Amino acid sequence: MAFVVTEKCIMCKYSDCVEVCPVDCFYEGENMLVINPDECIDCGVCEPECPIDAIEAESEDNVQWLEVNKEFSEKWANITQNKDQMPDADNYKDETNKYDKYFSENSGKGD
């Protein structure tokens, strides 16, 4: 079982979770982060670090997010350090249905 990043991250991209990950399994897209579920060791240290609760344990309720995380972690650059969140992230953090409105398949800048 792994942890996954959910749609709450879209347009926010807080990266507090990245620096605590012992296996560097986060990947950066243009407007969200994802976790590679094959690299995640299910330690859970990232989950409480997310200020908007965008990280969840893999479950039947978030299978869509497991698939999104898997697909895009194979396409996007690995991120291992905390970065500034998206501009206006606080304005988007409580918004719903962000996947349909804002999700981008484009890669982030990645360092």
Model description:
The protein is an alpha+beta fold. It has a single domain (3-81), classed as Alpha-Beta Plaits (2-Layer Sandwich), CATH 3.30.70. 23% of the residues lie in helices and 13% in strands. The chain has four helices and five strands; from the N terminus they run βαβββαβαα. A three-stranded antiparallel β-sheet has the order 3-2-5, covered by helices on one side. Strands 1-4 form a two-stranded antiparallel sheet. Strand 2 and strand 3 (33-35) form a beta hairpin. The mean pLDDT is 95.
Short description:
This protein has 111 residues and is α+β, with helices and mostly antiparallel strands. The protein has helices spanning 16-20, 63-73, 89-92, 98-102, and strands at residues 3-5, 26-28, 33-35, 55-57, 77-78.
Mean pLDDT rating: 95
Q: Can you tell me the number of structural domains?
A: 1
Strand content: 5-15%
CATH class: Alpha Beta
Write out the strand line-up for the largest beta sheet, numbering strands in chain order.
3-2-5
What is the second-level CATH architecture? 2-Layer Sandwich
Largest sheet: 3 strands, antiparallel
Order of SSEs: EHEEEHEHH
Strand segment tally: 5
Spans where pLDDT lies below 50 across 5 or more residues: none
Helix content: 10-25%
Q: In angstroms, what is the radius of gyration?
A: 12 Å
**Helix count from the secondary structure assignment:** 4
Under CATH, the topology is which? Alpha-Beta Plaits
CA-based shape: globular
- By secondary-structure content and strand pairing, the structural class works out as alpha+beta
Head-to-tail CA distance between termini: 28 Å
